[in-house]
Amino acid sequence: MFLLFQIAIVSALLLYFGKWRKSMRRRNVQSWDSLLCQLRSDWSARDLGDQFLWKEGLNATTDDIWQRLDGPRGLWAMFQNARVMLEMADYASRNQFPGSAQIDPMVLETLRSDAMQIRLCVLMALGQYALSQATEGVKVNAFRAANMYTGMAARMTMLLQEHAAVILPDFVAAM
Amino acid sequence: MTFDSGVLYAALVVESAVCGMLFKRSVVRVLPFFCIYILWSLASDITGALVLWKFSGLLAGRLYGRYYFTQAIIDSVLQFAVLGELAWSVLRPVRSSLPSGSRIVLYGLVAAAGLVTWPFATFGAQQYQPGLSATLFHLQETFSILRVICFLVMACFSQLLSIGWRDRELQVATGLGLYSIASLLVTILQAHQPFGPQYHFLDQILSVSYVGTMTYWVVSFATKEQERKEFSPQMQQLLVLMNVGARSSRIALGDLPPEPSRKRIK
Known about the structure:
Chain A has 175 residues and is mainly alpha-helical. Chain A is built from eight helices and no strands. Chain B has 266 residues and is mainly alpha-helical.
């Protein structure tokens, strides 16, 4: 019985390893357009933008942000979009031609660091939320993640409007 | 020629081929410890084959036993170095944001995981009389568990933070990961087997999986890395603007000073 249990664990490990390997390989060969198409457009960060809050005459508190985020659903959307942003940075570092005008490595480095900060803040917020619902700590982490995310997403949308609105009409409209 | 000697010769051939491919593809610059490990495997297999060929009978058995024990210790040290190196190379995209001394901490964590594993890796050692063989089996069992733990942690961590792996690193990790899982499975099965033909059959399966791993590396390293895809100035501009957006938010939150330090990626 114990032997079967041990074999089941190792088989599960093998399965996970195979799936992980496949996803990593897919990530390394995907095109820029397929990457952009992975951005989630079914959740809008529009209500979180500084401009919107300024227009509304609001001083955004953590409670406001939590409400506008739509709770864990918004957090999860940010988590997934931050992954796409990280993959964009990877795409850039992988596909730059050595001779051409290169993107500053500092830009990629900070982009990665910011997207990772978003993911970490979201993870912490989601973890805390799972344990204790929407406490002040959850809202603070959500606020930090949302603040960074809206800065990145707003500018990304501006550019997508100019260059890729046809590919991503939903995402541009959602922003 | 017996099955065992056939597998040994096959291993020598593929190990030589992997060594050649590693140097041809300049993997030594990215993963030096891994290259040393493969060179060491080739050298130790050649020496082992020579010991068995030159000496015969009881003397060969005794000499080979001592030699095998020494090479297993060196092998374990190199495996430890390879695991640390692989984990560190995966962290390449975020290295510059890590505090200094992170590399030492990383190796320390691998070592700590090994130390924690040691007392628990005993499910097959009871078959051996206390002595060199039992210690050797315990050491190998510890490392086969440690390798799987390290790969599991690396995979989970990279998935959680969405850290990408380069093609070569992914190929090395795939080979090592598969071999580690195979060796763990064989260790588990051997722990429930008395010594005999079936026990030895499991050893043979492990040797075949080793040759399979080496063959996978030969094929992977022989394949050129994929060609670069289009990366237009618009795409470049998108990333720069996203970066500016996040930066200003972090400055507003007080996470960053207004002027960034111009530290370059190594």
